[in-house]
Sequence to fold (266 residues):
Amino acid sequence: MKKYFLLIVFIPLLLHAAPVEHENILKIKYGGVWQWDSYLSPLRYDGQEVGIGNEWWQPFSKHEHWSHVGALDITGCWSLNPAKSNRLYGAVVQAGWGAYHHWDWTNQGVQVLLGPYLEAEWAGRYMVTNINKPYSMDAGVQVFAMSGVRWSFSGKKTSYRLGYTVRFNMIGVDYLPDYFQSYYEITEGVKGQVRCAGLWNHQAINHQLALDLQFPHSTWRVGVEHQFLHYGTSSMDMQRNQVNLVVGCIWHYKIRPAERFKSKTE
Fold:
């Protein structure tokens, strides 16, 4: 009975909630990657990467100074060792959601935000000439601290927003293979290492500087994104350093759940 009572009370509230504006950012990125994976090789591999991502920002309908953000990024890379005798291919998938409190100084066009962010990440790497250990994989779920600042200003026929956001991990869990484990043992069900991860054994930072340009008929983003990741054990070290140029398209929309879609003939 309690479950049905909650449905009866909250569904009408959701249906009659005032629609809020969503901001969606579809972006592509290209840049360089420098990575160490001592499970596969003690050498550093340098190369390039390309990726696509999407962000969506929106306020909570009933909390004036609270908003939330979601993101999904997929990146692929290719890199070489210093002697250029071996090649490493990799892929990274990151998905996250966070809530933040924002302080607004409307007269100055300044907004400051601060809040938690939850991110899940999977990364896989394939080495071309390694026979016993051609593949490496790791994954993690981390709680980040997120903060940022935005400054909005306008020109004669355009509007601009300069923003900087940063996230760094606090605590979570991660998975990485055992250093003495072969690729074939992984496929046969031999477990790797799942552990509690935090600043003492897993450091991650992601920050971005972006300029949004709003024209009469379109809005665009250009920016630079940097990600640094370092984790491992006493016998194995993993690092990834990424710097990317970001170009994206921004649009805004509202969802009105209480209204049905209308056909063009109505």
